[in-house]
Write a structure and sequence with these properties.
Shape: globular
Order of helices and strands: HEHEHEHEHEHEHHEHEH
CATH architecture: 3-Layer(aba) Sandwich
Radius of gyration: 22 Å
Number of domains: 1
Helix content: 25-40%
Bound molecules: manganese (II) ion
CATH class: Alpha Beta
Number of helices: 10
CATH topology: Arginase, Chain A
Distance between the termini: 10 Å
Number of strands: 8
Mean pLDDT: 90
CATH superfamily: Ureohydrolase domain
Strand content: 5-15%
Low-confidence stretches: 1-20, 374-386
Structural class: alpha/beta
Strand order of the largest sheet: 2-1-3-8-7-4-5-6
Length: about 375
């Protein structure tokens, strides 16, 4: 750690042996604040952004909560986090409605973060906000999808890249549809990480199931089938007739077995080229179950034999560095099945990896930094690491 970010402990011995001196003014700085310049009031020394992650606001990384569409349009953030707490559309274990809150909370880092992977402090380069949740109520999937679509469209129309926290995977239909609408006439390709193809026509009669969003996106014309690329498929779904529909619609997919043989980086390079074979921008959809359940157990339909966590994070860096991302989602985190918040932490890092890669892309293209994170009136950064 740098001197600017003092560790929780210090090399100095605690001053417990010092006798109080009655000729000194009363100390207002406690033992945990010994690195503060003299005279700072501990009550106001750290703003919310720099307080520990478990203290204060519960937005993503304590970013400003900014839900008003007019304010969003005026600020034009680079990135806006959106929660889509819906799990009415699952085919198996429910619980992903609690995903957005768990992902927002799954960090021990606060303040201005430093990506060691990309050698950049992303919030020094990008204006990022938390746009709050789509106003979902339970037990009405049509309504939930309508409000998700409107919320994502508001954010995307402001110029921000929406990063949507699911929620079950059905949310990708309204979310990617809104992004396609916002970027038109530019066309959208999709790179979709998942154990499952999610291309059923219906699930027990439900056209808006979490098993159907990719077919809806292609049928509706939001994305061309040939620019819909799937990575990580494995296990026992979809059945042959669904694969036939995928072939006839031009979808391209990369099985987990191909990743085992060729390595993730080569496969992801192919996926990028296929998604951008025509379109200008990419929507990135990440079902956390693409990662092996041993590293991401907190999900509704776990499928053994998946990616390593580090392979997925590297893939996100690879994609964001090479393409223009127009939108992103991270879905199917179901905290009730999680172990020690591992899955929520991985989903959180997927988002941070994308934000950091967006910042690095700006730097590497020679564009100036742009930051509107909360001002640090005290000029003091909170301790990180741990
Ligand atoms: Mn899945």
């Amino acid at each position: 750690m740098s001197d600017e970010h003092p560790p929780h402990g210090t090399d100095e011995a605690p001053r417990t042996d010092e006798a109080p001196r009655t000729d000194e003014p009363q100390r207002v700085v406690g033992p945990n604040d010994e690195h503060l310049p003299t005279g700072l009031d501990p009550y106001t020394a750290y703003d919310d952004f720099n307080l520990p992650s478990y203290v204060g606001s519960t937005t993503f990384q304590k970013l400003p909560l900014l839900t008003d569409v007019d304010v969003l349009a005026a600020l034009r953030p680079d990135v806006a986090i959106i929660g889509a707490p819906l799990d009415d559309a699952v085919s198996n274990r429910p619980g992903a409605r609690f995903g957005p809150r768990a992902i927002r909370a799954a960090t021990y880092h606060s303040g201005s973060l430093n990506s060691l992977q990309l050698d950049i402090q992303p919030f020094e380069w990008l204006v990022a906000v938390d746009a709050g949740d789509a106003p979902i109520v339970p037990s009405d999937i049509d309504r939930a999808h309508a409000v998700i679509r409107r919320k994502v469209l508001e954010v995307a129309s402001s110029g921000a890249i929406p990063i949507v926290l699911g929620g079950d995977h059905s949310i990708t239909f309204p979310s990617a549809s809104a992004v396609a609408q916002a970027v038109a006439p530019r066309r959208l390709g999709v790179v979709h990480f998942d154990a499952h193809a999610d291309t059923a026509n219906n699930t027990w009669g439900n056209l808006r199931s979490h098993g159907t969003p990719m077919r809806r996106l292609i049928e509706s014309g939001a994305v061309a089938g040939r620019n819909f690329v799937q990575v990580g498929l494995r296990g026992y779904w979809p059945p042959p007739e669904t694969l036939d529909w995928m072939r006839s619609s031009g979808l391209r997919w990369h099985l987990m077995t191909e990743i085992e043989e060729r390595g993730a980086e080569a496969v992801v390079a192919d996926a990028i080229a296929q998604a951008l074979d025509g379109p200008d921008v990419v929507y990135l959809s990440i079902d956390i179950d693409v990662v092996d359940p041993g590293m991401a157990p907190g999900t509704g339909t776990p499928e053994p034999g998946g990616l390593l966590a580090r392979e997925l994070l590297r893939a996100i860096r690879q994609i964001v560095a090479q393409v223009e991302i127009a939108g992103m989602d991270v879905v199917e985190v179901a905290p009730a099945y999680d172990v020690s918040d591992l899955t929520a932490a991985l989903a959180h890092r997927c988002v941070m990896e994308a934000i950091s890669a967006l910042a690095a892309r700006r730097r590497d293209r020679g564009e100036p930094p742009r930051s509107a994170r909360p001002s640090r009136a005290s000029g003091i950064s909170g301790p990180g690491g741990g």
